[in-house]
Amino acid sequence: MTITLDFVKGHGTGNDFVLFTDPDGSINLTPQQIAWICDRHFGVGADGLIRAVRSRSLDAGAASLAQDPAAEWFMDYWNADGSLSEMCGNGVRVYSHYLLTEGLATCEAGETLVIGTRAGVKDVQRNRTGYQVDMGRWKLDGSEPLVRARNLDIARPALGINVGNPHAVVALSHLDELQGLDLGYEPILDPPAPEGANVEFVVPEEPLISDGVGQIRMRVHERGSGETLSCGTGAVAAALAIRHWAGAGAPNHWRVDVPGGRVGVRMFPTEEGEHVSLSGPAELTFRGTLTLPF
Ligand SMILES: N[C@@H](CCC[C@H](N)C(=O)O)C(=O)O
User: Which one GO biological process term can you cite for this protein (predicted)?
Assistant: First the structure.
């Protein structure tokens, strides 16, 4: 059977996605088909693919609806190599923008759009820079692997953080080191992360704290996608790691510069414990129709 899809291309700070709507969950693409769509030479090209599916149409959506019945739409997120990920921070903003633009959902200023994901429901609000997402609870995953990367002289210690998906954050001291990294090669973790990991390399900006806001710069190698221009969950993990290392008195508001732009991260208390939010832009760039060759 030939599959033809109407899609929209979008990005958040250069982290780009192919999005399409499948309300009833009837279009089940294989990992090979997803990898073809995301291929920049043979397909459309993207860091990931997002299927807009009603939570009630997907087994994974049942947990979202149980958590919050307002989670009508589920973000079914896949990496560029066709592997599944639990969460995508830039993806949630772009997905929210897609739902609103396509008329599939509404969210006036001050209202909350609730999105189902494999990492729990996410509350999204429009703000000055685009969208702010409450990413929910986070945790140190207990790992401190050594990370080797191409052009890094020696293995560096990393901090394992889970923000719905797994991350390993490495602090570098100089911008030269960050710029010199060759992330065309996947960093090697010792010991390896059981489910794989997104790896962030971070340097402090000068000064590290300005007007009470922490400032860092990072590059990322994403699990299943390679180096990308931005990673929302990675920015969140990076800010949390640097605050952890900075110790008492470190700020709860961070600006994170990535090759594709800037995102904001805030940590704030809630009744169930500390949450962390991600804010930044979301843009839709073009629409088209694709026919899968297999
Ligand atoms: N780009 C994303 C993260 C996408 C998922 C990641 N590659 C994984 O496998 O966990 C983001 O903006 O958070």
Answer: lysine biosynthetic process via diaminopimelate
